[in-house]
UniProtKB/TrEMBL annotation:
Belongs to the sigma-70 factor family. ECF subfamily. This is RNA polymerase sigma factor. The keyword Transcription applies. One of its GO terms (biological process) is DNA-templated transcription initiation. Keywords: Sigma factor, Transcription, Transcription regulation. NCBIfam families: PRK09047.1, sigma70-ECF. Residues 48-95 form the RNA polymerase sigma-70 region domain. Residues 136-185 form the RNA polymerase sigma factor 70 region 4 type domain. The keyword Transferase does not apply. GO terms for molecular function: DNA binding; sigma factor activity. It comes from Acinetobacter gandensis. InterPro entries: RNA_pol_sigma-70-like, RNA_pol_sigma-70_dom, RNA_pol_sigma70_r2, RNA_pol_sigma70_r4_t2, RNA_pol_sigma_r2, RNA_pol_sigma_r3/r4-like, WH-like_DNA-bd_sf. Pfam families: Sigma70_r2 (PF04542), Sigma70_r4_2 (PF08281).
Amino acid sequence: MDLAPKQSETQNSSVLKSTAESRLKNFMNEVTGRALVMMESATHGQHGIAMDLVQEAFISLHKAYADKSTDEWYPLFYTILNNKLQDWRRKEARRSQPFSLFRKVSLDDDDVELQDVVDESTPNPFDFLDQAVTADEIQNAIAELPVRQQQAFMLRAWEGFDTHTTAEIMNCSEGSVKTHYHRAIQGLRTALAHLNPHMGGSSE
């Protein structure tokens, strides 16, 4: 009996698996740092929870989408990560509101869309660094924003996703993304203005 075809299929499968794992390792090395910053801000500095969410998102990505291209992984990963974050936030909300088990838990108080918000160009977060504001100061200011504003800003400004893709990741309308992003930029400018007079605040 000729076993060559089966052996060939096994070898091909092994090569594909190895390639996917290698791609995932490279992808993780590139994305982990930014994803952790995002999750630490969203979980109020709980590094352990942030690590768990990021690791669970990578595991789910590999299980469900190992055959996808690396370019496709970016929005898929952040969609999975957003879903895991929202699940965690719901559990935390229910834990703090024990009588909310049978009613919908509201996670955000800034979901009302602003009308006629211009889809602002994505700023480079390092523009703030050029204005003598440190990375730590930017991260601290981001952490003070509501979670959805954090997500909109970091997905657009740090990851470079457009409004449409960001809306798909955040599972909301493009109008909501524009609103969250607009408010995030305003909030960051206000929070950081006192550190640099070029941003509209006082240097004193």
